[in-house]
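Hi R.,

Here's the input for the 1-deoxynojirimycin complex you asked about:
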Amino acid sequence: MRGQNSLPARAERPWWRDAVTYQIYIRSFADSNGDGKGDIEGIRSRLPYLKKLGVDAIWITPWYPSPQKDHGYDVADYMDIEPDYGILAGAERLIKETHDHGMRILVDIVPNHSSDLHEWFQDALKSAPGSPERDRYWFKEGKGEHGELPPNNWRSVFGGPAWERVIEADGQPGQWYLHLFAVEQPDFNWENKEVHDYFKDVLKFWLNRGVDGFRIDVAHGMVKLHGLPDIVAPDPKSEMLAPENRPFWDQDGVHEIYREWRKILDSYPDNRMAVAEAWVSPSSRIARYLRPDELMNSFNFEFLSSPWKPDELKKMINHSLEALAEVGAPSSWVFNNHDVVRSVDRFDLGLIAGSGTTTLERQGDEKKFNIVRGTQRARAGALLMLALPGGAYVYQGEELALPEARDIPEDRLTDPRWSMSGQTDRGRDGCRVPMPWTKDSSGAFGFSNDPALTPEDAWLPQSSSWGSFSVEVQDGDPASTLTMYRRALAIRRNESGLGDGPMTWIDSEPLVLAFSRLGNFACYVNFGEPIDLPEGSEVLLSSGPLVGRKIPTDTALWLRLSK
Ligand code: NOJ
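And here is the predicted structure with 1-deoxynojirimycin in place:
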């Protein structure tokens, strides 16, 4: 038996132990005003869709004023709304209406860095070296005779050095500032108390407006090893999935921040929560973020980074459940988000999410990509994920089995990874192309209310095939991926053994993952040759058609076992 054992019944335990949360990449979800960018009114108009899908909560990627150098993860003002996306009153309406639809709502908080247009950074640029304004960020003197070399050897996650030199008031090059991401994303100095106080106010600002919690961006990155020492390693590259001994990832000090934040969350009613985007490994390091006085969820990136191989998936599942049981936390499974190649492509090509700095490593070889097999695997993976103990995060378009968009012309790529990698990495735009809602291409396949908007006019151009994946085409089709997700979420809601709680592995052939949950529920995922259905079992849901009483390759089944 694995997972959490003696838990209160689902209705009695906090919602975040079981929830399925839908990630809305706001720029690409629904456009209400015909400017080719998604917005808050667009989300409001699609709340009935989300309700029908059956998710428990939504998470909205950053919606704050931003110059959009990293599509909102460069925040210029944490307590307002990006004009392209709407106004604060609209955000408040959305929060209320999400609740009226019986769902919760999370917002994204970006505490590792701000935009260079944030008032504090602008003040810092205008202030002298050593001033309190500069101390809110990491300003340092350079090395070399004239300070012409960066203060240390850290590299940006997006490519190139992690330091940028500024021009001082005398017109001469002066100090350098740290940016672990784009040049326009200066890192905050969390050794400064003002930064702590500021973010506490930001949390309260949104909690007072009724949000149910936060997704914390780069949650393992805010605290840097004191003194900012060089990385002692042959290759100082900064991948998000932390190689050990990086002086800016997973430092002990981050946990103190989360203890402060937990007190704030707990001071509000109705189980407010936070989920960490902490690319740390192994699971025992993730568990540290989920100690009882810290955060509630942390994305399970080890699972997201597993290839489509039963032994590896099983190993990850076991490690995660064991590590999180130690701290009494639920697991938060995730197969897709706005940073990784979509699972339809990944599971077919054997790619590992998060790795790679060239287009081939990131997106794989298009000529080898088999979309039929990739879709089968992504669907089977979804039923696996939704049957495991804990909660799950679903990224918009996953419920349509959207593939990665591989045909965005180079001159339309917008991800800073493209330019900062010297144009060797196409970056993440391929998983961020606007949602197709209708079969017909007008209004960019229904993404926009304005029928005159074409697929090329959307902020990222949509593929000509996009309409075939649309909600309209899949709605009501019993074989569609959308229908499968709706059914899975409906079953999950009524099946008290699903969500958090114990699971037991069932002995099976090496290329099969099989486990049971309370209530004689079982999930079988077949990675090998067709196998027989367990005797006397009743099929509740299948990710693909069965062949007689056999489970085909790359197919998952939800079953009621005979006693
Ligand atoms: C993680 C976010 O998911 C990603 O989109 C962003 O570029 C980095 N953090 C920097 O904020």
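One thing worth noting: The radius of gyration is 23 Å.

Cheers,
M.
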